[in-house]
Amino acid sequence: MPSITITLSQQTIAGLLDGKYRLLAFQAVNTVAPGAMPLVWYQTTHFTTSTVVSWSDAFMAYASQSQISSYAVIQMDSEDSIALGDTVAIETGFLMQPQPGGQAGAVSIINQDPRPCTAGIGQAAAGAPSSPICAVPLNSHAMAVIQPTNEIFLMFLPMAVPNGTVLTQAIFPGILVDFENQTTAEVGFSLDGAWSGKGQKTPPNTDLVPLLTG
Q1: What's the angle, vertex CA 110, arms to CA 108 and CA 115, rounded to 5?
Q2: What b/e string do you get for 169-185 counting C-beta neighbours within 10 Å, with b at 16 or more?
Q3: 46: which of 126, 133, 162, 187 is 20 to 30 A away, CA to CA?
Q4: Residue 56 has pLDDT above 80, yes or no
């Protein structure tokens, strides 16, 4: 199971708790589907000097009637387990039905309901139920191909945002960690907002849409 360890000093932990911060995690994907948006995938307020975020390799596809807009929370109306390389159809009533064919390393989602919907894929983190990692507007009879990447984005935020929240801008500094050739990684964070360790550091106001949706 892949994992990332965030090293925090006791002083940093005290400052994060005093400021009511939470650690947010995002999964990056590649897709050419127009309007794709990143979602808050995992979060925790349980901080230790070695805070660990781990996740499963299993994926699910979902359909939703929620509208995509900044800070909107995407509620899954239906979901189903799916393997990379598979295709699933959203039938009338948002029922999920497996379909033949697919693209290697990606999940293909076809909307066969007469209504437009929001769709995407999700993954389980840290023993929690699967949570969506991206959202794509999908018109009737349209298809989205979504390829999960090996990149995890981390950011601390002093406000409550549920999992599934559309977040298009990194309000605070963050770090994008690539797991292409590794299953574990270690980074650090200090109260001044500085991230350390191997990864792409991002400043406040970074546009998360191109960073996390390809």
Answers
A1: 150
A2: ebebbbbbbebeeeeeb
A3: 133
A4: yes
